[in-house]
Specification:
single chain; Jelly Rolls; 8 helices; twelve-stranded mixed beta sheet; globular; eight-stranded antiparallel beta sheet; alpha+beta
Length: 563
């Protein structure tokens, strides 16, 4: 059977070695985990792997090409969904089981291989059908915002929000709308923009500037009286007080009014589009259209001012005697260790960085964050002592929730009194403190020996449409008032009573990790993949239970876009 060498020209030498070893049944665990991660990042590599498996299956079983392509696992690429393992996974050895199970093992389970039992790896009752795949809705996203305010009772948009078929209303200021076709619209309020698709919108009121790259040519913008089709590359439209004006800054546009022939307006041209008559030539420059780049320069100054506000907050918070840990992940402070800024300074509480990478934080170019995208990435810390309560607070940017559990801050051993703070793959925040590690959990099934605990869930607070957005999350374990509370962006989203049977008043941390949970003291090298797929910009752990007002103040004083 002839194989086109160009089919696999995009493989690196390392990837070629991984695939060869996998097909030969000789791949080492470390290499297999690296291959998992690379395949999640590269759709092209997954496609190549399909072709490899198809070819090898064909050769092993002496099938014809026609029969091979009818195998169900050679169809369009299967979605990388979470599939609950039914039993402890056994490490790969030898070729025999691979050909028959290749697609099932790789394409349905590869992204989520946890190497553990349901009792320790997955939430009770969780099951995802193989045919399902994660989805999100939207035609565009909100880009940069400059002094944006919103109508009373209207939607309060944030940068990164997804927009679908809806009316975008802006009371004042300037906002960017980035359409999925590639067009970018800068909107100046007061404005009302009706989104119809990734290629079409209507300006009912406001002034807009639209930039259309070659890939988005054909983007349509409707004025009340006229349809405008961009033929490349930039134009403006103003709809104010019943008057409409369009101006072309670069390239050309086509205008179509009901019952009229299409007309072309070229670079430098400007027209009035009054509904009562034909287009009227007007002077270019008569309308001041919004300019995101000019606003961006002003925003850079504001960003620096915001950052200065935050540094003042940082220095004040570090003095709070209730703090146990305070990590800010600033680039000039990141080496092998992350300093714990809580005073008095105690180097024993500094965090050790393992594989986590410095990246831009909430103030691009001014402050860094840590990214935990690799399965082994984490920040290690040891916190001795006993405590009466816990408050955990962090600024995080979640890119995806593709593990069953996504770690925020986790005690290693999870023994009596130790906390686990994490996010489930359905977007629910979870805080738990082990009640009794020597007592079996009566809810454990199938002979599992789960220890006695209780998980306190928030409602879903994240979905895929929020990918890449910074958010402030906090959770409070308060034995004095017998309650656990969860917060997002300063607002409490849930509160649950601690029942007497789950009450524990002596709390500990010991050895723990931010951004992951790997239990490094175990002898077995396998570990659940729980690294947070995203970034952490700030982490504070208090030895007291903060109240609603304090959490709200913590959010307000530490957030970007201070005014």
């Amino acid at each position: 059977m002839n194989m086109e060498p160009t089919q696999f020209k995009h493989l690196s030498a390392e990837e070629q070695d991984w695939l060869d070893a996998y097909l030969n049944g000789t791949i080492e665990r470390e290499a297999f985990e690296a291959l998992q991660e690379r395949m999640l990042e590269r759709p092209a590599l997954r496609a190549i792997m399909r072709r490899y498996l198809a070819l090898d299956h064909h050769l092993q079983n002496d099938l014809t090409a026609a029969n091979a392509t009818t195998e169900p696992w050679l169809a369009a690429e299967a979605p990388l969904n979470v599939v609950k393992p039914k039993r402890q996974q056994r490490w790969l050895s030898g070729w025999a089981p691979m050909a028959a199970a290749a697609a099932l093992a790789f394409f349905f389970g590869l992204a989520i291989m946890h190497w553990g039992t349901p009792a320790t790896q997955g939430p009770e009752g969780f099951e995802t059908a193989a045919g399902e795949q994660p989805s999100a809705r939207g035609f565009a996203v909100v880009g940069r915002l400059f002094d944006a305010t919103w109508p009373d009772q209207g939607t309060q948009h944030r940068e990164g929000d997804t927009l679908e078929a809806e009316v975008f209303r802006l009371a004042a200021g300037t906002a960017e709308i980035q359409f999925f076709c590639g067009a970018t619209m800068t909107v100046e309020g007061p404005a009302e923009i009706a989104l119809k698709s990734a290629w079409e919108a209507s300006c009912n009121e406001g002034a807009v500037r639209v930039r259309v790259p070659p890939a988005a040519r054909g983007f349509k913008l409707h004025a009340p009286s006229t349809e405008i089709v961009d033929l490349g590359t930039e134009f403006g439209l103003s709809v104010r007080g019943g008057k409409e004006q369009v101006e072309v800054f670069d390239g050309k546009i086509a205008l179509q009014r009901d019952g009229d022939d299409r007309s072309i307006l070229n670079k430098g041209g400007a027209l009035g589009l009054n509904a009562s008559g034909a287009p009227i030539p007007t002077a270019a420059g008569a309308v001041a259209f919004p300019d995101a780049d000019r606003n961006g320069s002003r925003a850079a100054v504001q960003r620096a001012t915001d950052f200065e506000h935050w540094t003042t907050h940082r220095d004040a918070l570090a003095q709070d005697p209730r703090l146990l840990l305070y990590y800010t992940f600033e680039r000039d402070k990141i080496g092998g260790l992350i300093p714990n800024l809580a005073t008095p300074r105690n180097p024993e509480l500094d965090g050790a960085v393992v594989l986590a990478e410095p990246v831009d934080g909430r103030w691009q170019g001014l402050k860094s964050a840590l990214e935990f995208r690799r399965p082994g990435s984490r920040v290690r810390v040891n916190v001795p002592g006993e405590f009466a309560a816990f408050t955990f607070a962090a600024w995080v940017r979640i890119d995806s929730l593709d593990r069953w559990y996504n770690a925020l801050f986790m005690a290693d051993s999870y023994e009596t009194g130790e906390p686990h703070w994490q996010i489930q793959n359905d977007g629910k925040m979870i805080l738990s403190v082990m009640v009794d590690d020597a007592r079996p959990d009566p809810k454990a099934k199938d002979g599992a020996t789960m220890r006695f605990q209780h998980l306190y869930y928030s409602p879903p607070m994240w979905d895929q449409s929020m990918s890449g957005q910074w958010m402030h999350v906090a959770s409070v374990f308060d034995p004095v008032n017998a309650q656990v509370s969860h917060y997002v962006n300063g607002k409490r989203i849930s509160r649950e009573k601690i029942l007497p049977k789950f009450m524990i008043k002596t709390l500990r941390i010991g050895n723990a990790e931010a951004g992951n949970w790997g239990q490094p003291f175990r002898e077995d090298p396998t570990f659940a993949i729980r690294n947070l797929n995203g970034r952490m910009d700030e982490l504070a752990v208090f030895k007291v239970a903060l109240g609603d007002d304090e959490i709200a103040r913590l959010f307000e004083q530490s957030r970007a876009q201070q005014r």
